[in-house]
Amino acid sequence: LCPPAGSCTMSTAEDAEWLRQVRKQFRNIAGEHKEINLEEFKSALQVKESFFAERFFALFDSDGSGTVSLEELLKALSLLVHGNQTDKLRFLFQVYDVDELWGLSGCGGAWGVPAVTRHGARSPRAGSGCIDPDELRLVLRWCLRESAIALPEERLADLTWALFEAADKDHSGSITFEELREELEGFPEVMENLTISAASWLKPPPPRERSCRPRYLTRAYWHNHRGKLAFLGGYVGLNLLLFALAALRHAGLGGWLAVARGCGQCLNFNCSFLAVLMLRRCLTWLRATPIAKVLPLDQHVVFHQLVGYVVLALAAVHTGAHVANFSRLARPDGRHALAEYLLSARPGAGGLGGTASQTGLALQGLLAAMLAFSSPCIRRSGHFEVFYWTHLSYISIWTLLILHGPHFWKWFAVPGCLFALEKVVGLAWRRAGGLRIVEVNLLPSKVTHLVIERPQFFRYKPGDYVYLNIPAIATYEWHPFTISSAPEQQETLWLHIRSLGQWTNKLYEYFQQPELPGPEPKPLSRSLREKRCRRWAQVGADGAQLLASAGCYIDGPYGTSTRRIFTSEHAVLIGAGIGITPFASILQSIMYRYRRRKQSCPSCHYSWCEDLRDEEMTLRKVDFIWINRDQKHFEWFVSLLTKLEMEQAEQEPGEQFLEMHMYMTSALSKNDMKAIGLQMALDLLAAKEQRDSITGLRTRTQPGRPDWSKVFRKVAEEKKGKVQVFFCGSPALAKVIRAHCEHFGFRFFKENF
User: Fold this and answer.
1) Beta partners for 116?
2) Mind listing the pLDDT tens digit for each residue in 242-284?
3) For the chain, is the Cβ count within 10 Å smaller at the N or the C terminus?
4) Cβ within 8 Å of residue 617, ≥6 positions away
């Protein structure tokens, strides 16, 4: 447990606040008994497995009464917080010295004096004074469970002996306290912040650092969002100008009519602009032009949603202003009631045949329905078809707008023709015939890996995505997925699809077969070959028939912000979970181009160094960061990453043009007392074997979440050129990374559909 301020000491005020918080939390748990038992202790610490809770409880229970009082708890925690490194290491040693409590044989000798309970029995907190291999193996087994890591027994034995041989300095067959301290001194990051972190429930909330000004007013924020902010400013300014010009032109006809005409002119522009924002093929083409550096093309879907809300608001004001004007006209004219103005066609009322009022009301209803059924709660709750069919009402809306507004066609002519052309091209692709799914792999965490035959003239860039339709799953549904194979792969396309919604779950279940009972979980490096062979192309006649019936159609490709990677100097690629998908294609293509750039002349054997860069790739350095929740998620692309590591080692031994960083968030960090031994053992074994025990890669998998300040500081210190950060993952993590990028002055790009 560390002090709230994160240092090894606390001020008097902080110490008083900490003690007050401890007492408050303890009273909430202990109630009237004023003591907590083992079960309450486990619940409070939120420990996944019981081993460490029992060890901590036994060590905190100094009198061996079977309960922990507030005084005992405060004494133990004060030692951990205010004590020196020796005190903390001694506590760690006692946690590992388990033979008395767990019935293991001692290793000879005794450290300290055995603690005796008030009943005269020896306390379970006292060990034999040294740690033998059996004790170490037992603790490491529980460390693995606590970190949600599954390794076979032989691998556990390797970890045990790696750590034991390193710590047993005198080769006596046991580890003493002094030997453990000497070994830990080789891990300074552990010594700096030794904590049990299981007692975080006792820490007061850390004080939030407040900036003297809002984040949105910082220079870094405006620099990183300059394209989007400039575009928004231009958009707002253009709407104000259109409104003002139209309102002034009709000011003599009354205030309500002037407002209605102003909103109507803005609607002419915005309803046409909605089509422009969904011209995916045109936008993909624009990404290859200098315009991409000015316009925020990556945000086109977000802007489409924003303009949709603006259209609904303008339509409501436009309709309300007309109704108010009709009410004004209906009062002095007794022959025409308000209902007649709204529901009857009248010559001169506007629109085709004087139907402006009727078409306007119909438009208002269609727009409201489209907006209501476009909400995320509809699209992501298994009712995608409702969103799909109501969104098709854009055809009716544009038709009614042409009938309603006399000048709308002038605004809509060019965007409408481009939109129709894109639809015709997409329809032609679909009419050309369905594509064959040649292979399906069902990966952990319900990920479906589709291998699809590549159309003859299908050209795409790394990181592009396609819309996929599989009639066997849903006839009319099209969903976007990133292509995970590189463009240099000529015969097939890869798609990795995570089961997160109704359609993706149906896809996984469609190809799912009852699995045969298998042995205990195996390490990633060994089990991958077996799991990778579970392919539908090899399941016999039934599988072949299923694949044949599951033909698909694709629409695309469409570009994303990741196309900028190849024109960066130092690219940082961050994928969270299945967010690695776009980077799988990009990493393959990067290494292909890197190899081509390193090729030497066959005549003079001159080798082109990386200082001579082609127009396709200006990269000097690539940092790839992959964050996963648990061990099995690494199986999705670990074979690809292994191949990339081997290729780089063959091309440039010792050079790290592509540097990988793996993080497993379920694993406890190195400064957590429940994981120190395991992480030390993993480090030692990785150094010895030159491969990671969790993934089989040469890159060591780091426990916990990245320290973004430390990661980006290292990137900045390398000075490989202008840094651009590309992220694909959850919106919550995107906000965190974006804030750090603004702090370091890095450009930030997020994958958007």
Assistant:
1) 122
2) 999 998 988 877 888 889 889 999 999 999 999 898 888 888 8
3) C
4) 566, 567, 590, 593, 594, 597
